[in-house]
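Technical note accompanying the year-one report. For the benefit of new consortium partners, we illustrate the data format agreed upon in the data management plan: each record pairs a sequence with a structure-token string. No post-processing was applied to the example shown here.
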Amino acid sequence: MESITEKAEVLIEALPYIQKFNNKIVVVKYGGSAMLDPELQMNVIKDIALLKLVGMRPVVVHGGGKEISKWVKLVGQEPKFVEGLRVTDALTMEVAEMVLNKVNKNLVQMFEKLGVKAAGICGKDGGMLTVEKKLVNGNDIGFVGTITCVNTKLVDTLIKNDFIPVIAPIGMDTKFLSYNINADDAACAVAQAVGAEKLAFLTDTEGVYKDPTDLNSLISVLSLTHAEKLIQEGWVGGGMIPKLKNCMEAVKNGVARVHILDGRKQHCLLLEFFTDRGIGTAIISEE
């Protein structure tokens, strides 16, 4: 009986959040180790399906970097990165597009298995993501794109017709050439364009730490001012800097809350969306 009561209390705790985010768009950037473990993968898909079934309107933007690297090696090349961005020649671009399409349709299949309608697309569909070549410190790293325009017509149509859009980060330039896009960049751009209420990043870290060497210093809520201070004072380093800057940019451009979550934790999305305490780090305009 005690177990049943606890379950009822959890549902009651979730009620105000279900009401608050009913009919609101939430964007989930799905990547990292949570994409590699079959059990974790299914749990993430179940979480997103539940968000949909309780009245939210989720949009998924996914990566696939580790899978791309595996296939690049299988075709006889060594993956190369410059400041965290994949050097993408013509062959690598072809491999990336094939792998991301495979990942995309696999995610759609999992949603459909749960009885939730999903549609797999990429930034080329409907001219959704227009890009220009990204240069790193003036250096050309191949077919890597910076998003210059987001056309939401296709995504809006899918949402309106009760589908979960599942988006692969591939776009085109004005000459209709294909470009690989950093999935974090794509998720931020899409969230801003569709007016998302929330943007959640599933990562391989618990969130942002005040002191990266102290696992007890996790910051639950981070304002833009505080986030900028952490970067300037050198508390944030490595791959967290571009991720945190992406989060800050999304908040500045109208996304109410951006969350950095540990995708390796089972049901991290539900814990963040539906409980008073939540997990990970939430970035907001002002505390």
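Partners are asked to follow this layout when depositing records. The CA atoms of residues 152 and 217 lie 39 Å apart.
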